[in-house]
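Handout, section B. The chain below has 423 residues.
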Amino acid sequence: MKKIFVSIGLAASAAGLSSAFAQGMEAASPKIWNVSGNLRGFYDDNYNVTHDKQGSWGFEVSPSVSANLDLQQTDIGIRYTFGMYYYFDRESHDQNPIDYTHQADVWLDHAFDETLKLNVTDTFVVAQDPGLLDGGTPIRVNGNNIVNRGKVTLTKEWTRQCGTAGDYGNNLIVYTAGPNSPSDGTDPSQADILNRIEQNAGLDLQWQFEKETMGFIGYKFAWTRYTADAPILPVTLYPGYNSDSRNNNVHYGYVGIQHEFSPNLSGMVRGGASYVDEYNDPTGASHSVAPYVDLNATYTFTPGSFLQVGFTQDINATDVVAPDANGRLTEYQQSSVVYGNLTHKFDSKLTGSLVGQYAYSKYKGGAYENDADNVVSAGVNLNYQFNSHFSADLGYNFDELFSDISGRDYSRNRVYIGLGANY
């Protein structure tokens, strides 16, 4: 199912509300470079993120370094964050007690002139936690799993009222295959099922009705190619059912409007449809049409205090492949997601945040046609800033998956407390 916000370490952050580019911009200080770090103790009651819970106390060490260069027409930035998570309970089960994560963010803004602007962002993640990876499976996967998400956007203002925005996105998802994964498809790994390249290219035609209101109409073409070149079902029963059997092409058409109601309140609505072409299904090509929606609004109460809410409707990859009686695969999920983020600055030192999300993800094709996963996630965090260099935070994260597929559901509770330093 699609996750709009993820847990980076043990602190909830709204990834769907704030892109990696925006996070990088906010993390960068007025200085050219910035160094920060967190030391937290935590308890995670389901660190494997499965139906059968295993809990553990532990601690996290998470240093980060960033650099930002602001030139007259160009802004360039980079940030790297390392995470080490130690789980005491794993030692008693003869498991590796340490998880390592790596995240690198790169962004570039360049104005060729007043009318032509370029934006480039890229986020590279190595991790095991499903929330941080968001690669199509709700369970934790051992290994140095990689997700890289890049996007290039070029905007051009042709006249005071008319403009265009073109973009290209490229997502690479690579899971580490298990060392004993059989080659006959009887027990395919997450790598066999989910390794893929997702690409998309789109163009918006924009019209500035008023200073505060812009309308647009657009088209986007997306194509997904599964790259493992491995069987995903038992070969003796389903010969020819390989990773690339779920390749697809998607055409999006939409219209939308963006409006600034006041200096404190703005919103955007984008709506249309997607046409999905499952051209490589072993039982024959299939086609489907689904709604496509993206809407969000932001209200700023005071500096540092704001509310963001939104809703999305789109398709996404899934690790479920179970075929129906006719041999048709489970192709993807159609996900409806509602999310929100409330951040309040109580005073100059204390800031609190509350994030929440509900996702309804229905299976398309296969044995679980029209069955669904329901995911509820929430997080609360308090941060106290002692001075410009040191802070403390306290928080709680909750995740629960209710699934129509037996044995897939789980719940997870995490609490943490820690210290932060910034220079």
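Note. The helical segments are 20-27, 88-92, 130-133, 190-194. Compare this with the example in section A.
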